[in-house]
Every structure is written in C-alpha cells, then in structure tokens.
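If your schedule permits, I should be very grateful for your opinion on a structural question. Please examine both parts with care and let me know of anything in them that strikes you as inconsistent. The record follows directly beneath this note:
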Amino acid sequence: MTTTSRMRAFVALADQGSVRGAAAHLVVTESTVSAAVRALGDEIGVPLLERDGRGVRLTPAGRRYADYARRVLGLLDEATAAARGEADPERGHVRLGAVTTAGEHLLPGLLSAFRTRHPDVELGVDVAPSTRVWSMLTHHEVDVVVAGRPPAGNAARVRATRANTLAVVGAPALADGFDPSGTTWLLREPGSGVRSTLAGLLADLGVEPRSLTMGSHGATIAAARAGLGATLVSREAVRDLIADGTLVELPLPGTPLVRPWHLVTHPDATASTELLVQDVLAGHVRGWRPP
C-alpha cells in the first residue's frame, strides 16, 4: 500500500471517527484500514492514535498530521484535475462545495445550465455547513464554493455574487403580538452560518429564548410551517411559502439582512473550473454578476 493510500485511510478514520466508519466510507475491510494507519504511524515515527475506551482517537500529533494530510490529498486530486483539464477543459473535473441552502436552491439550476453546454465535464458536489465548506476549500478538497462571504484570511478569489436576503419567518399564528423573547427559535445545524447570524441577532437583543435544533435547512423550514417556532432563512428559499401565506415574515430588529451569495475559487483555478465560472458570468445562470 502506498503512502498516499495510507494517508487516505487515516483521513477517513479522522473524519468518520472510527475504523468501522472509515472502512465503510472507503469500501474496504476494517483490517485494511487498521493496517494502513498502523503502517503510516510507523513510517512517521510517532503515535497517531491512542486507545479511547473500546475505540481509538487521534493523538495531538495525529490531529496535526490529519490537517496536513487533507491538504496534501486535496492538492494531489486538484493537480490531477488541473492536468487533465489543461489538456482538455471540456473533459475535466470540477469539485463543488456549497452550504445547505445554496445546495438545495442554487446549485441544481447552476449545474443544470452548465451541463447543458459542457456535458463531458465531470462534476462532484459536497453540501455541508459553512465551517466545513470553507475548510474544504482551504484543504483543496473542492475547486468552487457557493456560500456567503469567505472568512477573513481565507486565500480565495470571489468570482461572482448573487443577491440574497435573510428574513425571520414563522407560521401566520406567530404574527399577532410577535415577541422574540417568548418565541421558540428553530436553529440550523452547528457550523451553519445562518445559525451563527441568528445567535448574534438574539444576543444583541439581550434575550435567551427557547430553541430547537432541527439539523438541516429543510427540517427547519418544515418545523416553521408546522408552527413550532420562528427561524432565520434566505427569503428566496421560502418565497413561494410566503406568497401562498403558509409562512409570514416576522419583525426582528436587525432584519432583514442583506447577505449576498458568493461563488469562490482558488486564485489559480483549473481550466475546467474556469469554464464553470465563465458560464455563470456569461449570464447563463440567472442572478449572478461579477463581484
């Protein structure tokens, strides 16, 4: 087994949290993962794992190595895609990452429009919370990110933006005498940028109301429709539900918030990635414009 294969097994273990999870993710046996990680530790010369009850966990050295390994593997995959794309951009590979709302409401139309004109470009998609998506870009695990504004210090290039407004919504019954402090707030999954924004708004009001974490964008909207509470969402994502009266906008100081979508790449984007960017900027995908 090559060092690269061992690194992939180790990163899978780090991401999945167990040998069993890594084996399932890689579609190999648990003994294969264990042997690969053990050999990698022997090669490096320091313990990467330690016992944790009946399982294992990463040592501090293992956590540091995993961070580098993700970056190395991401760069290797990017290098392969860049070389193939340079030879023939129309037959290259583009890896996209998107936050949940963008993945559900923006990416399908964007990719459909792109595939119509570039059917032989291979596409890979990961939809994840904001913190995970930006980490994937940093580690070169994706070529393009569709999300909010890049975090400060992120070595990324904003290629296009799209209007987006965040608003508080809930079932019509909440509108009469709406009180932010007495309302149950429906929260997105940890790591979500919208969740962090809502937490900041409520903190500015000095209130600590009840909350209910739903775990996904779709589940949060469904809970709001069912009358379980109020939530902060992209207005575009619930436009039809507001139009038919299923949901209503609710007044919360500081909202609505203008939070444009950003289409972001590495500074040295691959040739196939450039095809996608230029497709978006050419107006084939409605709403996007140069930054």
Remarks:
- The CA atoms of residues 181 and 208 lie 7 Å apart.
- The mean pLDDT is 90.
